[in-house]
Amino acid sequence: MSERNCRFIFITGGVVSSLGKGITAASIALLLKQRGYRVTLQKLDPYLNVDPGTMSPYQHGEVYVTDDGTETDLDLGHYERFAGVSCNRNSNYTAGKIYSAVIARERRGGYLGRTVQVIPHVTDEIKKAVISQAEEGVEIAITELGGTAGDIEGLPFLEAIRELGLELGRENVLYIHLTLIPYLSASRELKTKPSQQSASILRNIGIIPDILICRTEMSLQEEHFIKLSMFCNVPREAVVEERDVENSIYEVPVELAEQKLDELILDRLGLPLSELDLSDWKEMLRRAVSPSGSAVRIGVTGKYMGLRDAYKSIFEAITHGGIAADVPLELIGIESEDLEGGDTSRLEGLDGILVPGGFGYRGIEGKMAAVRYARENDIPFLGICLGMQCAVIETARHLAGLEGANSSEFDPDTPYPVIHLMDSQKDVTDKGGTMRLGLYPCELRSGSLAGSVYGTGSVSERHRHRYEFNNEYREILRDAGLLISGLSPDGELVEIVERPGHRWFVACQFHPEFTSGPLKPNPLFREFIAAAGKRSLERHS
Ligand code: GLN
User: Ligand 1, atom 5: nearest CA belongs to which residue?
Assistant: First the structure.
C-alpha cells in the first residue's frame, strides 16, 4: 500500500440527506482527473446491511454493480460516469461489512483476548477500508461518507476519518463539508444557521472542515460567506457556493470549476496546479443542454416509476444515447401495472420502449404488454435483464403457441418454463451477493444487429440475475422469429436475443446501463436512441 504518497479527501454531509454529495464527489474527481491526477472514489455507508443488494428500491434506489460483481450504492454509478474511475469491492463499505470483518476476526481469535470495541477495533477496520483505495499510483483518494453529520450510526466513521487526519499527516488530508443553505420564501432569506450547527457537530468530534461547499437555490451574498466563514471556522475563500443546476447534472463540474474549487483543493493539499482540460466535457454538455432536432419520446415501463432513483443508471444511459445522437429526449415513466387491463394508450406516440430489470411478479404482465406493443407496432425496443426475459416469454406465448409460458420465478408450475433458474443457483439459499454478478464475456453472432451495434465479435458486460433462457426452447423460439445473437463463450447461456425483420429489437440478459457514460455511451443505448430518433423523424415528417 502506498498511502504515504496519496492524499485523502473526506466529504461529509450536513443538514439534510439527498444534497447531491455523490455528484459533488464525482465532479471533484473529474476536475482533479482532468488536471492530470490519478484519483479514486469510495463511499462509506453507515447502515448495517452488508451491501445494498438485499434492499428494496423503495429504501435505497438502484443497486449498482461493478465489474468485479460487487453490489453497491448508486453513487458509485456517478463516480464511474463522471470521473471514468473503475470501482471495485474496495469502493463501497457499509457498517455491516465493517462489523462482519471485525466479528469474523474476533471468532478467529484475532484480537488475542482483548475486549473488542467500537474504538479502536471498528474504527481501525474503517481506516483500513479507506486506505485500501490507495493502491500503487493513486495520487488522490476521495471518500464520501453517507448520511448526515449528527447521525448516531455515522459516529464511528467520523471518528475514524478524524484519526486518519492525525495519522496520515494533516497536510495530506482534506475535509470537505457539503451543507445546505435553505431559502425561506416567506422571509425571502437564505439561512446559514443549520450549516453553523452542522459544522459544530463536526467540531465536537474534532473535525474542522477545510472547505465548506454550500448547496443553495440562490446565490449567496458576501454577508453569508462571512457569517459561514466565522461560525464554521473555515477561511472565507474556502466557503464555496454550489448552486442548483438547471438542465443537467453534468453541469455541476463546470460550475464547481468556475468557483475554482479544484484549485482550492490542490492548493490545500500542496499539489501543483496543472492545466484543466474540460473541452470534451463542455462539448458533451452542449449536446446535453441544447440538442438539435425534434424530441424523441422514450417510454420506460417498470414498477417503481415514481421513484426515478430505482432506475438511475437506465435513465442516465438513455440520456447518454440522446447526447450521442444530439437529440432532445422526452423520458416517460410508465407504471407497468397500468398496462395490465389491456389499455395500451400510454404507449401510443412513443419512439422507443425500454423494459428494464426487476424482480418479482408484480407488474410483469404489463411489461409483457409493452414488449408486445413494441413488437407489433415496429417500435424500437430495448429489453434489459428481466426485460429480455419478458421478451422471450412474450414470443413463447404469442408466436410459438406456448400458452401459459412463463419464468419459473413467477410461475413455478408453468407448463413452459422458457426462463428458469440457472443450474449454478439451484443450491443457493442466501440472498446476499449470490446472484450471477459482474462482468462476463459474451460472443456476438456475426451479421446480427447486436454484432453490428457493438462492432466487434465479443463484449463483456455486467450481470445481476438468477434466472436464464431455458435452452430446451431455443429451437421453437427461433422458429418463432427470435434470433439468439449473444452467447456465453461456452455456448450455454443466452445473453442477447433480437428480432430480425423488426426495425430495432434487442434484449440482453446483462445490464449495459452500468457501463455507459456521457462521453462514452454504451453502444446498445446509443443505437437504441439512434433508431428511436429515426422513428421520431418519420413521425414528424
Ligand atoms: N429477476 C430476474 C432474475 O433474477 C431478472 C433480474 C434482473 O432484471 N436484474 O433473473
Answer: 386
Q: Catalytic annotation on 385?
A: yes
Query: Is there a catalytic annotation at residue 511?
Result: yes
CATH topology assigned to domain 291-540:
Rossmann fold (3.40.50)
Contact 383, 391 (CB under 8 A): yes
The reply to whether ligand 1 has any atom less than 6 angstroms from the CB of 385 is: yes
CATH 3.40.50.300 domain position(s) in the chain: 3-283
Q: Which residue has the cell 468530534?
A: 205
Ligand 1 mean position, distance from CA 508 (Å): 11
Task: List pLDDT tens digits, range 436-454.
Answer: 999 999 999 999 999 999 9
Does residue 466's CB lie within 6 angstroms of at least one atom of ligand 1? yes
Question: Is residue 14 within 8 Å of residue 149, measured between CB atoms?
Answer: yes
Helices 95-107 & 123-131 angle (0-180, nearest 10): 110
CA dist 242 and 253 (Å) reads: 10
Q: Taking Cα atoms as reference points, which of 171, 130, 138, 123 lies closest to residue 11?
A: 130
Find the 434 Cα to ligand 1 centroid distance in Å. 12
Q: Which of 368, 463, 466 to mutate to test ligand 1, by most ligand atoms within 8 A of the CB atom? A: 466
Protein residue closest via CA to atom 9 of ligand 1: 357
CA distance linking residue 470 with residue 422, whole number of Å? 9
Instruction: Locate the ligand 1 atom nearest the alpha carbon of residue 384 and give its number.
Output: 8
Domain boundaries 3-283, CATH class: alpha beta
Q: What are 70-80's pLDDT values in tens digits?
A: 999 999 999 99
| Spatial CB neighbours of 143, under 8 Å, sequence gap ≥ 6 | 8, 9, 10, 11, 41, 42, 43, 44, 130, 133, 161
**Stretch(es) of the chain classified as CATH 3.40.50.880:** 291-540
Catalytic residue check, 224: no
Segment 353-392, tens digit of pLDDT:
999 999 999 999 999 999 999 999 999 999 999 999 999 9
Atom of ligand 1 nearest to the CA of 409: 1
Only one residue has cell 483505495, namely 133
